[in-house]
Amino acid sequence: MNKKFFFGGLLMLGAVVYLVFTAMGQGSQYFLTVEELLSRQDEFRGRTLRVSGAVLGPSILYNPDTLELRFTIVHIPGDNKEIEAQGGLAAVLKAAANDPSRPQLQVVYYGPKPDLLRHEAQAIVLGQLGDDGVFYAEELLLKCPTRYEAAVPTQTGGE
Fold it and tell me: Taking the model in full, what pTM does it have?
């Protein structure tokens, strides 16, 4: 009788371990900068990714009939220490959105156009890179740069 419980418990433990490992593999997402994604496109194509960048305002195109939203994001550093060293998030977003030499990524998203989508906003997109080099976003999160402008003087003052 004790052997039945032992082997039954062992079988259940094995099943739980298997489910945990398969769930971890399916739910994992990479968080990349635009530059990292573009330099390793073949490796990440077809995987669910989070990519962060500064929005180029003139690139925003929205079709209210199809709810298709197209825009371009530009590379910003992914390291918080580097962002702070460059004057804070507002300064980094402004510099990135006004530098045409930085790596850029075209994004397509279907849904209502967010009010915070504007030039120099930080966009964090969740989705997949298509075979055509366009990032197809399922989720779109935005941070408006004006929210961080008040903090710039203290960040750049070295205090």
Answer: 0.73
